[in-house]
Amino acid sequence: MQTSILAFRGRRYLWAALALIVICIAAYWIDDPQEPPNGGTLLGYALGTLGALLIVWLTWFGIRKRNYTSTSGSVQGWLSAHVYFGVALLVVVLLHAGFQFGWNVHTLAFVFMVLVIASGLYGVAIYMRYPERLSENRGGASRSELLDQLEDIDRRSRRVAQKLPEPFQEFVTSGIRRTELGSTLWQRLRNEDRSRIQLPGSATTVANQGQEAAMDWLAEQQSRADADSATTIAELSALLRNKRKLLRQVREDLRLQAGIEIWLYAHVPLTAALLMALLTHIVTVFLYW
Amino acid sequence: MKFELVIVGAGPAGLSAAAHAETLGLNYLLIESSAAPANTIQRYQKGKHVMAEPAVVPLRSDLRFAAGTREAILGSWQSGLDELGVNIRYNTEAIAISGSKPNFELTLLDGETLTAESIVLAIGLQGNPRRIGVEGETDRSVQYTLDDPDEYRDETIAVVGAGDAAIENAVALARNNTVIIINRRDEFARAKDGNLALITRAIEDESISCFYNTGVASIEPAVAINLNTETGETRIPCNRIIARIGAIPPRKFVESTGIRFLSDDPTTLPELSSQYESNVAGLYVIGALGGYPLIKQAMNQGYEVVEFIKGNTILPADHNILEEKFRHLPYGRDVDDTLAIIRNNIPLFENVNGLVLRELVLASELLTPAKSDVIFHKNDYTNTFISVVEGEVEVETDSGNLITLGPGQFFGEMSLLSGRRRSATVRASGSCVLLETPRREIVKLMNSYQQVRKVIDRHFIVRTLRAGLVPDAPQSELEVVAETAELLSFRAGDVLFREGDESNGLHLIRNGSVSVSRNIGGRSIVTTYVAAGNYVGEMGLVGEAKRSATVTATVATESVFLRADIFQTMLSRNSGLRERIQTKVKERISENLRMEAAPDAGDLISFLMQQGLGEATDVLLIDETLCIGCDNCETACAETHDGTSRLKRAAGPSYAQVHVPTSCRHCEDPHCMKDCPPDAIRRAPNGEVYIEDSCIGCGNCEQNCPYGVIQMASAKEEAPSLLNWVLTGTGAAPGQRQPAAATTAIKKAVKCDMCKDLSGGPACVRACPTGAAIRMSPSDFVNLTKKAS
Ligand SMILES: Cc1cc2nc3c(=O)[nH]c(=O)nc-3n(C[C@H](O)[C@H](O)[C@H](O)COP(=O)(O)OP(=O)(O)OC[C@H]3O[C@@H](n4cnc5c(N)ncnc54)[C@H](O)[C@@H]3O)c2cc1C
Ligand code: HEM
Ligand code: HEM
Ligand code: SF4
Ligand code: SF4
Ligand code: SF4
Fold this sequence. Notes:
B: alpha+beta, binds flavin-adenine dinucleotide
């Protein structure tokens, strides 16, 4: 129902960025310096300055995003421009360097810049695809509703277990206590299920990925139980099946959300590295002038 | 014992009256049904900051009162009472008053009677707790309030009731006690969702046991409770019984004394003279019961009423305010004369009680615009009601006609009643004097005086007909139609008419909104949403004789119903009408075709209507295909609004990837405005419903908002500089501010104000990096579905 950052206002920033690229290429084409094109020619200086300004402006986005009283456009508009001009930067800097690279701090700055841009592109790809998947996976409920449902199942399981012998109660309690949703972004991203369970009669815990171990144990008990407790156990395993489904849903939700967030942990520190390297580059260039 | 004066109720009003009676040396008595002064204030939350609104009115009392904590105020009253030696009897409830001046008989709950020459009723509006109504109900083991649940441990406690108070008490007590809850019905239907979940869970967990469909048969002292359950009688020994079965509104008791109210409407007031005397001579009413919902007003009246009873004439405390209000008027008269001019010039106020009119003028503004000054613009969202005291104004109608209104006429009722934008621009056509009255005062007046309601309703109908259907019809014809038109009201979900019904007339939607649905392939599909100010049912009147669609109220809705025969007469008399209706019908048909082709779009509209968006003017929606869950929207709201976000992004339902977060929708007829003592909730010209600083933090609006978008919050610490945070990492990160120190925290109601004070508009929307968050008006929902289909 809304337009995305890429389509923002008829892609006006795409056209602007393309125009910038065309102008820079044309200038490079027309320019005829004494030495082979590089950062030291007049055009080289101009393009380098343009690139540096672009980088500062791109970094400024992190500030603008948090300046909530700012009246300069919308953050969506800023991000749309950030994305297109961020890519255009690559061309500007390539032309600045005259496609010359070496094992030096200049190239180091360039490498960081490429990494930042690459991570940005990856981020945009994620932003374009994940939200819809998040929404589909949740099916209209919010995450906290899903967690409430989980809690509800746990409570009902405890109650059903009350009707069964002691070991079942321990089984349910241990299953609940040791179910884990992943505490770090990384675990969530990898969809690692570290849930464990202590099965009755055993002194140690076993892995309970996807509640498999618990389901198996219950199935076994059910097959050995008398008719009366068998129905109660069946009730318990129906609840557990539900729980497994919900857990899968919540994990997927957390995984997608982690995916949306994790790349910024590359984008932002790499930006910091880029700024440092760039500063060094500029300082050295003037020192050796 | 005979007194010159008995004051009933030791709230702020009664206390102040008694203090003044003491100072003036009257032979008086103050009685109070609870065990301490000011029961209503005792029941505020611990530490609540009590505010001294209205700030412009000076305090006039022998007791002290200034803004401060509940404890400080109660303390200062108590010491005031002690210093003066006020004659007060606690645990003394009045249950009947008979006789007449100067020989009133006042009967107390314990059977004793007191005689008095005059009586002041200052019993407020809270009412006394409803009693169980069985033998033993007054036993010491039975209590009707619970201050501190942690006071009790290891007891068996029976809680009687099924409302929020009963549930909250039961759940809190269950932490340290064995609790049994006794519910007369088979479910907890009256409780809020949150409490319902709490009690259901507690019963499932068996931390509370519940008797459903059970009444109390009797109570045995020291102590057991006998119950009538579905399966017979049961006796349950217990230590304590707590009954939370509501309060008895004081109106019955007041009426039983012979005091008349202005009308049957539950919100109306007793008939009072400007000296607070009721129709029963010698019987006075002050404070909240008399319609003055704030502490300072109540205290001032306590002082004044004693002066009046002594036979003294004093000017009311707000006299100066009126004088100030009237200063710029061209009359140069004193307050009473000016009030008389207003009453004489405006027929609508002819029979209005003097005190009521005074209050109304006090709350109103007197405007003296110059020639061609605009009073309000078309499409403004203001909802005041304006009466012409003197001079003339011009209304610019859509058809370009100018309608002149002179002294005694009024305008602004359209927006007032429909909650929609102003339908025309109004200018002063010469120098004139206008009385601009806030919506709340006029609504009160309409509830109190049938006659006022009737006149305003009739004008509304005439003007609606002229605006929407027959702009050129003569006034006389419209008046005839208005006489025969019926005003109908519907609750959310009620059907106005069904597909296939006989077409018997046309509905002009006056407020609320309706959805139109048709049965297509055995499925009911919503084809459109019709907002207030429009009409439905026209198709059957010009073409087919059967209704071609079902029309359902999406929220509480009122319509003006024109019978088919009246409508046909109008058709025959007004040449343009048939054409206008036919154009409308054509529009509807093409809309139907479009929606039939895209049934999902209709489902989306139904979903949005189910969220109560039919009464919204501006709502925050989130496109789930774009939202990355970064909550920058919430942070933006918090950072621009004293640290508390007024929207909850993740909460709320979604359908077809449209998410309706918990956030204010700026309703046409805002529920939150209903019961705000200082009238602090207002609507700005652009439609923003916002809360002014005069909020006293009573929490009524939080309770009244059906969408849960109002919170009670205190301002958080100052926002640190952003650059400082970015560069040095010191100070709180955006969205992470902490509440100011608890001792100074004053909690007030906060809600979305649509960022009306920010030049850039809604911060939440502008801060969303992906463009997922949007604000829109329900009339644009159809566009949503255009893209969805
Ligand atoms: C949560 C909340 C917060 C509020 N905050 C503020 C604020 O900050 N500032 C402000 O100005 N106003 C505030 N108000 C409004 C204020 O409390 C009332 O306007 C005020 O209490 C009215 O005073 P009153 O004397 O008319 O009635 P009440 O204060 O209601 O007093 C009536 C008294 O009469 C007693 N009584 C009742 N029936 C009988 C009977 N039959 N026999 C004997 N005694 C009887 C009652 O026990 C009670 O003590 C708030 C209200 C609420 C509910
Ligand atoms: C104020 C801005 C800048 C100035 C004044 C500047 C100046 C220069 C100069 C003088 C050279 C030639 C150095 C040499 O040949 O030894 C150069 C090369 C280069 N610059 Fe810049 N530059 C600027 C910005 C940038 C930016 C933003 C980048 C990208 C991150 C960049 C990347 C490079 C690279 C990769 C080279 C080539 C190094 C090589 O030849 O091995 N420069 N720059
Ligand atoms: C050298 C170039 C770039 C720099 C210095 C840069 C810098 C930044 C910074 C500082 C942020 C703010 C992060 C935060 O505070 O949350 C940011 C966010 C972002 N950048 Fe870049 N960026 C660059 C290039 C790009 C490119 C090329 C793209 C995409 C093609 C991109 C996409 C994004 C996105 C999607 C965000 C996240 C916005 C959000 O969720 O708030 N960036 N960038
Ligand atoms: S705004 Fe709400 S909390 Fe504040 S005084 Fe009005 S009703 Fe009470
Ligand atoms: S419009 Fe403003 S006040 Fe309302 S939710 Fe958005 S940011 Fe908050
Ligand atoms: S700011 Fe936008 S993307 Fe972020 S949570 Fe809010 S609506 Fe979603």
